Amino acid sequence: MRTLCASTLIGEFFIIGFAGLVAMKTDLGQGTVWGVCGGAMLLCVLLCGVVTRPVGVALGWVLQVALFLSGIVVPMMFILGAAFGGLWWASVHYGRKINEAKARFAAEHPSPSGV
Predict the structure, then answer these.
(1) Which residues contact 59 (CB under 8 A, 6 or more apart)?
(2) What is the rounded distance in angstroms from the CA atom of residue 78 to the CA atom of residue 11?
(3) CA torsion sign, 44 to 6 to 68 to 21?
(4) What gap in Å lies between CA 48 and CA 44, rounded to an integer?
(5) pLDDT in tens, 22-78
(6) How far is it, in rounded angstroms, from Cα 6 to Cα 45?
(7) What is the signed CA dihedral for 40, 60, 80, 93, rounded to 10 degrees?
(8) pLDDT grade, residue 110 (50/70/90)?
(9) CA 80 – CA 16 distance, rounded (Å)
(10) CA separation for the pair 66, 6 (Å, rounded)
């Protein structure tokens, strides 16, 4: 799960940065734009480290909603936010299935050396 979710979050990191460049063409000040975008980009990176914990997944969903709602400022973000929301769901859903399958395999096929 960690790899799939982290890949999605790193993709979002770049999308948020590009959206910040587009948002600079709006009436918002540069400080506001980069304060919000920088905070969201930092959250993406930090979430990569805690994504295996329940709070990491919950914060990831909050980030997905915020990314979608950023379409109010940059309309294309409605589309990208929905796309990344779907990717986040798939990363969490299929990542958990992969983790369960790995655990089942490890239980059924113990290592001969015990490692």
Answers:
(1) 43, 47, 50
(2) 16
(3) positive
(4) 7
(5) 999 989 999 999 999 999 999 999 999 999 898 999 999 999 999 999 999 999 999
(6) 8
(7) 160
(8) confident
(9) 10
(10) 18
